[in-house]
Amino acid sequence: MTLAVQSLTALALAVPAILAPVAAADLGAAPAGIGNWVGFAYMVAMFAGLLSGTLVGRWGPVRVLQAAVVCVASGLAIGAGAHLATVILGGALLGIAHGFVNPASSTILASAAPPHMRSMIFSIKQTGVPLGAAVAGAIVPALLLHTGWRSAVMLLAMASAVFLALVAPFRSVYDRDLKPGERLHPRGLAAPIAEVWGNHPVRDLALTSSVFSLVQMSFGTYLVSYLKLGLGYSLLAAGLVFSASQVAGVLGRIVWGAVADRLLAPRFVLALLGVLMAGCGFAAALFGANWPMMMIALVCVLYGASAVGWNGVFLAEVARLAPEGRVAIVTGGTQFFTFAGVMLGPPVFGAIVSISGGYGAGFVFIAVLPLAAGFGLLFFRRIRSG
Questions:
Q1: Measuring CA to CA, which residue among 134, 128, 274, 121 is closest to residue 204?
Q2: What Cα–Cα distance (Å) separates residue 166 from each residue in 1, 154, 163, 169?
Q3: Which of 12, 27, 32, 139 has its CA 20 to 30 A from that of 328?
Q4: Each residue's pLDDT tens digit in the chain (386 positions)?
């Protein structure tokens, strides 16, 4: 159930990035401007995540997931209006939906997952992000062969509403021990952040997630545009490469979860992933029209396996380190840092593309950062353990 809702919100957020090369002209915007939309959507998600801990306590995690589904369906329908204002409003609703999912899902999985399988189970749930993006990369270009982009988005909006019925039966299982007296208050927004900042191991993970999410979203937001506008690929071919990278992220999340459970410490796994995504970023910066498509696809697959594959290990470790009964609050607090990276990454990447006149400089930027973060995880662990 959590996997299904996670996939839905990820699919919805991937749709504008895939449509950017063909829809931007109708909105009077440049394709590179999609980064600003993504940044705005995730800024909304940051604050929605801070509120979600209180909402989970008051309504229950499944009811919060249902609210996310409603926001997805509404956001897509409004965004199909083909006006810049409706697209912005749709982005806000999609951001709220995405901000709700992790705290609610982590509350459910923290109680359901056996400790020796925690990373694996969280990683399976997190495969919903690349899985949803992969589905979007495959079906959106296919829909465009038969209809306009506005109609395609409306079809997705109507299909999203079906998820309300899929989620409903789980309320009787997980929406228990509610706290109807819980109230939203502006001062409550700062509490999850303060709790994360005061817990050094969790703070290290939160800051690392800022960098990794920056890389993940910059890669996902601009890959299709890079392949189509920079290298001359058709939209269908670019969409298939994008989908392959997201499928690799699905498999990577499961593999890295198993590795973190059975072979290596989660913190060390995250450090290795930082180094791997850095190597792929440097390789992507060198892409040229003379590169074989299979070679480019291989780099993108490895990029997806690392830059998309880290989240499950991260969330499982956060849930393990969170105090008893505080999983939703701590997850919402760390998510603030995660989404800060998402919010900043695509706009900065887009600005680098605009200034440099090409995508290579942007990929160098998102290669240096995870390399530093990966070594930082190892370095600071040694300082504290020493």
A1: 274
A2: 8, 20, 5, 7
A3: 12
A4: 889 999 999 899 888 878 777 776 666 666 666 777 777 888 888 888 888 777 887 888 888 999 999 999 998 888 877 777 888 888 899 999 988 988 888 888 888 888 788 888 888 888 888 788 778 888 888 888 888 878 888 889 899 888 888 888 888 888 777 766 666 666 667 778 888 888 888 898 999 999 999 999 899 888 988 888 888 888 888 888 988 888 888 888 889 999 998 888 888 999 999 999 999 999 999 988 888 989 999 999 999 999 988 988 998 888 888 887 778 788 888 988 988 887 888 888 888 988 888 888 999 999 999 999 988 888 765 544 44
pTM for the whole thing? 0.75
Check if the beta carbon of residue 332 is closer than 8 Å to that of residue 98.
Answer: no
Rounded CA-CA distance 198/1 in Å is 33
- The one-letter amino acid at 28: G
- CB 215, CB 223: distance < 8 Å: no
Question: Cα–Cα distance between 323 and 177 in angstroms, integer?
Answer: 18
All domains in the chain, ordered by first residue:
2-166+188-385 (1.20.1250.20)
